[in-house]
């Protein structure tokens, strides 16, 4: 085999590995999290708090995806599965989520706001509760649970998919790369 052929084969191999990494990372994280994900509030175990991960807010109106998360968290609270709700996101997201939960029957003193939860990793890092139910959509739960586990938090997740979402394929693509980044961060920065 000539040196040129060996170089070509090596380059193709490296490219194939790089292209496969997001899928391998996603598969690893999804398999790890599968036993921690619940689709029913009744089946979810009791924990100290529910961590509600932020998403888009339009003025004071929650996006469909965020409203589904907060509605699911309210259900968990009303089912006595958690003692409090932690609304984590950008300042306007955390405030809008807290206001929505309060208007829907959750006492103000049972709602904590984390206005520094600008991404999933920050939301997990900012937690003071030692056991949580993470509330988000199915596509997002494996990475959130992976990050919580790496932080030593006893966490399970509850699926907050109550509707079909217009941009779901964009969200899933973004999540694929965010999961790869989480794995790389873990490997490089432990």
Structural write-up:
The structure is a single chain. The protein is of the alpha/beta class. The chain has a single domain (32-189), classed as Rossmann fold, CATH 3.40.50. It has helices at residues 3-33, 64-78, 91-103, 120-125, 141-150, 168-189; strands at residues 37-38, 49-53, 57-58, 61-62, 84-88, 111-114, 131-136, 154-159. The strands form 2 sheets. A 6-stranded parallel β-sheet has the order 1-8-7-2-5-6. Strands 3-4 form a two-stranded antiparallel sheet. The longest helix has 31 residues, at 3-33. The protein is elongated, with a radius of gyration of 19 Å. The termini are far apart. The mean pLDDT is 86.
Radius of gyration: 19 Å
Number of domains: 1
Helical proportion?
A: 40-55%
What structural class is derived from the secondary structure elements? alpha/beta
Which spans of ≥5 residues are poorly predicted at pLDDT below 50? none
* Number of E-type strands: 8
Percentage beta strand: 15-25%
CATH topological fold name = Rossmann fold
Order of helices and strands: HEEEEHEHEHEHEH
- How far apart the termini lie comes to 41 Å
In CATH, what is the class?
Answer: Alpha Beta
Strand order of the largest sheet: 1-8-7-2-5-6
Name the CATH architecture.
Answer: 3-Layer(aba) Sandwich
């Amino acid at each position: 085999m000539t040196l040129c052929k060996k170089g070509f084969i090596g380059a193709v191999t490296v490219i194939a590995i790089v292209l496969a990494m997001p899928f391998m990372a996603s598969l690893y994280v999804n398999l790890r999290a599968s036993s921690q994900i619940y689709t029913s509030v009744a089946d979810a175990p009791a924990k100290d708090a529910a961590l509600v991960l932020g998403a888009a807010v339009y003025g004071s109106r929650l996006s469909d995806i965020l409203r589904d998360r907060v509605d699911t968290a309210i259900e968990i609270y009303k089912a006595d599965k958690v003692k409090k709700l932690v609304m984590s996101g950008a300042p306007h997201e955390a405030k809008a989520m807290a206001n929505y939960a309060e208007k829907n029957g959750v006492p103000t003193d049972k709602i904590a706001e984390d206005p520094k939860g600008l991404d999933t990793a920050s939301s997990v890092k900012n937690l003071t509760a030692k056991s949580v139910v993470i509330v988000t959509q199915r596509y997002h739960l494996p990475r959130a649970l992976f990050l919580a586990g790496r932080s030593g938090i006893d966490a399970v997740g509850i699926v907050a998919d109550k509707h079909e979402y217009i941009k779901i394929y964009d969200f899933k693509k973004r999540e694929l790369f965010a999961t790869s980044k989480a794995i790389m961060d873990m490997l490089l920065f432990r």
